[in-house]
Write the structure tokens for this entry.
Amino acid sequence: MRTSDFEEQHYGASPLAVHMAIAMSWINYGIGALVMITSVSNSYHAAAGMIVAACVGFALSGRPVAAIVRRLTGLAQGACYPLGIVLGNAVGLLAGASFASYLG
């Protein structure tokens, strides 16, 4: 059976699972931005927190976190990749929110 280019790039994960994980991550970023803007007094600090969230989240999402999830749980590689996207972006939002609250 021949695998598609999409499956090779995303460790055999189904396109629907990957697209749903990406959509969930964008929704998390939107909610995180609203929370940071309303909870931090200075909007520049909230913007700096979102920049940190995006940088850390995009650096961790996908393969790095998927490898950790696979090692810890033993799940198949195709199942870990969407989890890696969501969890990596969640860690990025946590880091960004921590940085924004630290600034002000």
